[in-house]
Amino acid sequence: MAKPVNSFRKVLTGMQLLGKLGPSLQRRSFVFFLFFLIAVMSGLLLILFSTGVFSVERNKFRIFLQNELGHAAQSVEQEYGVLSVEGVLLAERLSKQIEITLDTFGLNPADLKNNPQCLEPLLGQTVGLLRAALEKNKSSGVFLTLNATVNPSLITAESSRAGLFLKNMEPNVINITFPTIRLLKGPISIARQEDLDLLPQWQMEFSVQPGDFFFTTINGATESDLPLSRLYYWDPGCLMTGCYNKAMLLCAPLIASDGTIIGVCGFEVSAMLFKLQHTPASSPYTRAFTMLAPLVDNTLDTSRALYAGHFAAAPSGDDGFLSIKNPVAGIFSYVSPNGTIYSGLHHDINLYPKGSVFSGNQWALAVLIPNRDLAVKFIRQSRPIQILLLALFIFGVGAAALLSRRHVAPVVDALRKVKTGKVTHHKKTNIQEIDDLMAFLATQDESDALESDALLVQAEEMTQISPLVQSFIENVKTLSPAERNVFELYLQGYTAKEITDKLCISINTIKTHNKRIYYKLNVSSRKELLLYVKMIQEENHKTADDAD
User: At CA 279, angle to CA 276 and CA 170, rounded to 5?
Assistant: First the structure.
């Protein structure tokens, strides 16, 4: 148990001594080279950042976003603009056709609600117009909703409206020869008459409620005297009862010549059609997707948006809003309520002409990618540079250690020879300062040797002159007590500095005592003083030997 304790004490003592002495020259040199390496690495990193090496992938991603967004925005504005115009024309044609049909029954547009028996023949007369409009345009469906029901006596009459909804099962292809049109809503008799298959989700009438596409369109037209081209409405993210797919609806009011609003008609753009038309082109960013969403207070309403991507593009669990943050290097961040972050760009889409009833409803088209996917891309792009810099740093540390050792080795060797007294045998280090110092120390050693030889010769001569020794002994008796204390400590081998510590006197006092001692003893230096002492000691030994 004692050995570990002693070892620990030795280590602790060594650490304390190292702290007092300071770091070695080799460590100082290593730190110097290390700081130099860090400075060089910092400069290299600054050059890499300033030249845009680390931002190459970000620039590529921004160019990709700009290209995709520019193409998609132009396509969406053109397609939706065409559907808006076609929807207004369809509303005008249907309104005229309905008025003509009502006139054959001797009815006015205002009498439509009170004559449910005429609804089915009236709808039968509009099938041709609806079918032609669907086959002409790239739309997933076309619909007509009348402001009346075939069963006004039912409890659900307030939320039920008669109409037709034709679905195109291949909405991305205009196929006049073999149309793939199915009936989603409307009387079965019309389906038989027009040889239309029913969809599994078929319903007799539309189910409407306040705030949906039907009432929003009618209320907008009722409260305005603007022309029909300023009254249409794009309903976002509509999911009709019985429908399995989210869609956007272009809704145009049916206004009779006397101003009576008969109903609503328009086109459907399903989520599938939007995906087929606006999925981003194949690229390294496999999870990039396009989103068309309402823009509200610098946020994107994802709950009513349409998505297009190679995979499941809709943000999982983000049925809410994406907050738009300030761009960094030209790329925006979009943050969901659950903390998911997307990177991308967006562009405002004008779905309405200026001065229309719904022109205040803003839309935006965005091309986004999950931020973690982009981060992985950036890391992979910069990984070779990171590995190179790491390797360079490791090599630099090793080189610093080697250079510091080789740089300090001649100095350490010179100091070792100074300690062992082998200065005269020192080889040149080709370091001017070290070689000059060693040459100077060698010269000093030679002079000290000569001086020592001279003193020995003098001592031999003085041993032959006994009266001088006797005179020295007599002079010692003249020393004062303070001077004698100093003299005796000199005899014991103490230096002047050690005597000051032992007698608690200043160095100036020691110098004063030395002058008086040298004067009274008739010597010129400490060496001569010690020589006399040595002679006395030899005489004493000689006398003792003779007595024996």
Answer: 0
Weakest-pLDDT range from 108-122, 302-316, 500-514: 302-316
For residue 319, CA distances in Å to 242, 293, 371, 411, 511 come to 21, 12, 18, 74, 96
Query: Taking the domains of the chain in order of start, what are their residue ranges?
Result: 73-274, 465-547
Rounded to whole angstroms, the Cα distance separating 56 from 285 reads: 15
CATH number for the domain running over 465-547: 1.10.10.10
Q: Which two tokens stand for residue 143?
A: 């619909």
Q: Which long-range contacts (CB under 8 A, 24 or more apart) does 102-105 make?
A: none
Q: Residue 172, SS3?
A: coil
CA distances from 377 to 56, 122, 373, 374, 499 (A): 11, 60, 6, 5, 77
- DSSP class of residue 229 equals G
pLDDT value at residue 309: 84
Strand partners, 142: 166, 267
Distances (CA, A) of 286 to 59, 105, 281, 312, 374: 17, 59, 9, 11, 11
What confidence score (pLDDT) does residue 8 get? 44
Dihedral sign for Cα 100, 106, 108, 109, please. Answer: negative
Structure tokens at 290: 């396009």
Distant-in-sequence, close-in-space partners of 128: CB < 8 Å, separation ≥ 6 = none
Tens-place pLDDT, residues 356-381: 999 999 999 999 888 887 766 655 66
Note if the pTM is more than 0.70.
Answer: no
Q: How far apart are CA 104 and CA 121, in angstroms?
A: 11
**Residue 546: alpha-carbon gap to chain centroid:** 97
SS3 134: helix
Closest CA to 99 of 116, 115, 86, 112: 112
pLDDT score for 205: 92
User: Coil, strand, or helix at residue 309?
Assistant: strand
CA angle, corner 163, sides to 161 and 169, nearest 5? 130
Q: Round to whole Å and give the CA distance between 224 and 494.
A: 117
Q: Sheet containing 261-270: which strands, arranged edge to edge?
A: 197-203, 181-185, 163-168, 141-146, 261-270, 247-255, 233-238
